[in-house]
Records
---
Amino acid sequence: MSLFQLELRLMFRERAVLALLALFVLSLGYGIANGLELAERQRKEADALIIESSQFNKQVRDALERQALDPRQAMGSGHLALLPPPGFAVLSGGQADLLPSHERIILWRTEDPSEGKIGLANPTQLLTGRFDLAFVLIWLFPLFLLALIYDLCAGDRESGTLRLALSRGIGAWKLLGVRVLARGTPMTALALGAVLFAALLGGEGLSLPVWIATGVVLAYGLFWCAVALLSNCFTRTAAAAATVAGAAWVIFVMVIPTLLNVVVESAHPMPSRAELVAKLREASGDAERRSNELINTFYKDHPELAPPGMQADMLQRRLAVQEEIGRAMDPIYKEFDTELADQQQVVERWRFASPAIAAYEALSDLAGTGYWRHRAFRDQVAAFKDAVFEFYSPKFHKRQPLVKADIPMLPSFAFREEESAAVQGRTLSAMAGILALALLCLAPCALRLSRGASGKLVS
Amino acid sequence: MLEAKQLQKRFQDKTALDKLNLKVEPGEIYALLGPNGAGKTTTINLFLGFLTPDGGEALVDGISVAADPVAARRKIAYIPEQVALYPRFSGVENLEYFSRLGGGRHSRAELHALLERAGLKSDAAERMVGTYSKGMRQKVGIALALATGAKALLLDEPTSGLDPAASHEFSRLLRQLAGEKVAILMATHDLFRAREDATRVGILLKGRIASEYHRDEFQSRDLEKLYLERLGA
């Protein structure tokens, strides 16, 4: 029997180990179930929206084949801009529960701030969020792992077993290396297995992002193994090793992400919800009062769009009002986007202050629920809004009906996914960063356990 | 086999070993006597490479312990005062584990045979070590020395706390190992066992060998008296 197997056998003699593993499996299972539920809900919502939208579009096209149509009828309840549910959503809910995954573009309707933007927050806040697989992997996996590996040699030092073990002619590095590998393997294998299982259950299959996600989880596990090694190299008792490992968990998983959140919120505060609503009301009221003036100014600026006799109807006034509200609100929305982008930039810059942040960001990114995919969606929605406006506005103002020839020009939204190389670049760099942090922890261990210095471990 | 050359060790301002010279040949049982704090355990630790000497060197089979502690330890078996084993492993599992640490591979039958040779019956060998007496643990330690075919054996207070029968049994095993040309260095307070088993006795005082006696010298005289005289008691 190899030393690895003997270490495994030794570990499993402790009954609590099986209980811990069972508890971890339950946590993973619950996380996967939650992720599946979220993914299913997203898929159903998206399917319902797609069916509704395509049915309506078909009705419009069929009607246009037969006769001209009032553009208001063609717009119906709004043109749908939909962010397709990500294939690997089961891994991480990410920002999916905070950001809208669809938007209906209606030119005459005032945008409702409760639909999206003001609900946004920086990604680290999500560390305290949903109990999904990413939560289990980022928060609980290190705890379960440390429960098995926090005492690699400190307890043996106390009991004297370490003296006997090292007197056998094995290097301290090898002994601790095999031990951490054996003790860390079951928990890590479960975590990796859960990622693969979730990918298969969620329909993502064993794609490249799934393998990168397992790489990130493995790197994260290795970091905690390095922390355990470090604490065992420099503490004299099992209790002290446990304290150091526990403190490391609190610092890296709770304190640093929370501090980063505070820093990010302070440095780049979001416009407040109350302020946003008040501003919107003020802008709406002002625009409504000035609707006559606004439409007249608009027609002076765009005489080509003026209806016969310059007599604007209700819809044309509404468009002018909406345009004015949009102008008034634009700086606030821009400020929002800028602050969010700045927040994300700070998080990106400081993500390696804690491997928990780096790993969470990477997993959300791979799941398709992270900042960048939503950002791409919002940018594309903004462009789509412009296209809708460009198409409909002249027709509304000139009271032109839609005709059969307009069918190919009817605006429709199709989300363009970000280049996979960009996602891979971000996530692989996160993985490399986490591994670098692990190596940073191992460097003092290497000095401590260097040839000839291993006696320090027992003395 | 075991050799200390001008071995020095200081702990802050206290000199633990002061240019100690010592040589234990194959087949010899060298009893290192001395009061608490004389440097006995420090000597053992220097041979094990658990301490780094401040001067001189410890050699095991010609290998400098400080230069290559792992290689030196491969030639040594070590039995401390309390043989600390894993209580959730049986005797045979502990033997397999610790033997594997030194690179040894033995079948279950071979492990049982080694434990039997060390005086531990098969049924006892299969019991969890948590139920073992100190004597039984010492036997696992001896079996470990047998398993690795160690050329040198370092013992730190091996008979302390053993009942007379276990102590006698332990001595028998030591003499058996010495008969197999194993060099044995035993740090002990047990003058009776030293007189019975040792081929040479060294009295360590303030980090130096104050006196050394061959078996015929201390067999013909009272070892306790010699020891106390040397201590100036």
---
Amino acid sequence: MTLLSLSDLSVRRGDCPVVDHVSFDVQAGECIGLIGPNGAGKTTLLRAALGLLAADGKSSLAALPAHDRARQVAWMPQAREIAWPVSVETLIALGRIPHLPRGSKLRHEDQVAIDAAINRMGLDAYRLRTATQLSGGEQARVLIARALAQDTPLLIADEPIAGLDPANQIATMDVFSGLARDGHSVLVSIHDLGLAARHCTRLLMINRGRLVADGPPAQVLTPENVEQVFGVSAFFQHTPDGPVFQPMTVIQ
Amino acid sequence: MRLGLILGTLVFTLFVGALVSGYANASFTESLRALFVDDGTPLTVVMRDIRLPRALLAVMIGAALGMSGAAMQGYLRNPLAEPGLIGVSGAAALGAVLAIQTGLSASFALALPISALAMSVLGVLLILALAGPRGASITLILAGIAISALASALTSLVLNLSPNPFAAADIVFWMMGSLADRSFTHVWLALPFMLVGWGLLFSLGRGLNALTLGEDAAEAMGIRLPAMRLRLILGVAACVGAATAVAGAIGFVGLVVPHLLRPLVGARPSALLWASALGGAAMVLAADIAVRELLPDRDLKLGVLMALVGAPLFLHLIFKTRKEFA
């Protein structure tokens, strides 16, 4: 089942194309990493795909009415904003807004989705803590749980693991690949190519707004692509413990 | 829910308190009996035509200002936002000042509030034109500041050029805000606007909750921000325009009340809306009782008292916040 379909999506800022004729489809059960250097247009691409930004070309999500879209896709922006000192559970419950009938309180099925999201992110001990008083990494996990509580077929997250410690980075990527195994799909922009290589089923590499490579990690993270797009050389090998990718030196 | 009960009881108690306080010398039971039973004494007239509308206006204005403050703070995600920010109270004040200056307010009773309302409608149209249908919340703030500045400049100009010192004094006293000598006409004039305003603001709860996560996340959750902003501007304008038109400028309610109640509702913006409405009503009622009991023969202005109480309260909040972040 196709969860997202982009064709010829372009975003211009003035005359300069920030996203340049990007096309790809997202099927159910995929864990997709969106990679590219700073300023490549990752965030712009994701926001345009969601319809949060005016764009040329087609995006199946942007074409949906706002209310239907919110049941198809959950979005976790890069800016981890928590405006008010609400409890962790209250914050995660915000993810149920698209499902709640107007004026309704949380129903049984909402509480089930909230509890599932809390369990998945291992936040049970944090339920009653004040969200604004948590550390940056803990807030990131709470916000991921919020997006999970929305319980949508597709989850799009902008650099969700930036600023997490290694254990939480790996745990979070495990959550994402677990979601994909359960038939959901996840599209995340990510700077850690090593984690992307290990956990994603597919990588999209973009550079200057153009989609440069699209496929399984081994086909995308070739020495030529990595050198051309990121300007680094890298070590990449399939080991008994899975693929290992490590950027090595900057190529002038 | 318990908070709702406590605030509701508080408002009711203060409402009764407001009904039985005033210049007319009558006991608690006498006053209330005169309110319900028309025994032909002047006390019935005092209760029904002076104190009842005054107490009702205090509730309405307090609720309107408290709710507007909670909505503005929730929308802008800033605890320092207040209803005056969109410039409507400034515009309403200008309308009132013009009515006093031109002598229109002396020719018929409702000229002043109607002129104030008309000017606030003009202010709303201006802010809608300036802030546009889309755009970040910063444009709304800037447009509000521009309109406030323009309105206050024009108000100063009227005062400056006023050839009549009595009109100038009238203007200054009016601007301090008061509920003295208001009648049921004022209640009926303000009520329709406030009902519309309350309805619009109350419908924002869900969107304000979603905005806790920022504008992008809220929009992705199906909240239509441009529509929400329009309802916010119209709702706040209807509430604040009507409140200012009948009572003058009463500050600090919209700023302090949501601040005080936020921890008690678990900081949820939707719950803060109705809590601040009740809290605002209680605060204005209490202040209006105080102006009558503290200096019964000096006509202490409600807005002045509110600022006197509000400013130190706000300082206290600042020190508390500083301690939390230290």
